[in-house]
Amino acid sequence: MKTSKEKMIAGELFLDKQGELFKERQHAKLILHQFNQMDPTRVKARHQLLKPLLGQTNGRFYIEPPFRCDYGYNIELGENFYANFNLTILDGAAVVIGNDVMIAPNVSIFTAGHPIDPVTRTAGWEFSKPIKIHDRVWIGGNTVINPGVTIGENSVIGAGSVVTKDIPANVVAVGNPCKVLREINENDKKYFYKTEPFPELDF
């Protein structure tokens, strides 16, 4: 018989009857409390404290405090990941983030959900569905990403979006619910903000 943790990670309905998941969330809270209260100049120490909590990190990553998550072990970060202030990840299921992903302030990533049926919901049943964010995605501030969503490579999610469905690669998407606004195109290599051209840059 599967444990509550196994059911959670598999995306099935579960109840945490034995309190195992509660204990793991408490452990994560203790680590994150230290992380969030640490002297801001102690960047290396903050990194060393957080890295063992996370499931996998592939190279450099930087997360501005405060940062919150449920467990940590279901989070996989790619190379050169950056998250600004107030990132929240409810990682009951896998949250896989690719390389060169940028996340603006106040972004929430939720794998966790509860049944629509009120009787089942109030009985404490819940579920989690995985989220995947591919390489070179930029997520604007105050965005919410809901359970089971995949965001394709290079795409930009506009500030204030609520992402309820998959977003394809190479698009700008925005809104509540988040929808594709346009494809990323050659003009985006000429202009950094609307009609303002790029200066001569040394990459």
From TrEMBL:
SMART domains in the cross-refs: Mac
SUPFAM superfamilies registered for this protein in UniProt: Trimeric LpxA-like enzymes
What region holds the Maltose/galactoside acetyltransferase domain? 5-59
Report the Pfam families cross-referenced here. Answer: Hexapep (PF00132), Mac (PF12464)
Transferase keyword on record: yes
- Superkingdom is Bacteria
E.C. code: 2.3.1.-
Q: List keywords of the entry alphabetically.
A: Acyltransferase, Repeat, Transferase
Signal peptide span = none
PROSITE patterns (UniProt xref): HEXAPEP_TRANSFERASES (PS00101)
Q: Which family does it belong to?
A: Belongs to the transferase hexapeptide repeat family.
Q: What is this protein called?
A: Acetyltransferase
Q: Give the species.
A: Sphingobacterium kyonggiense
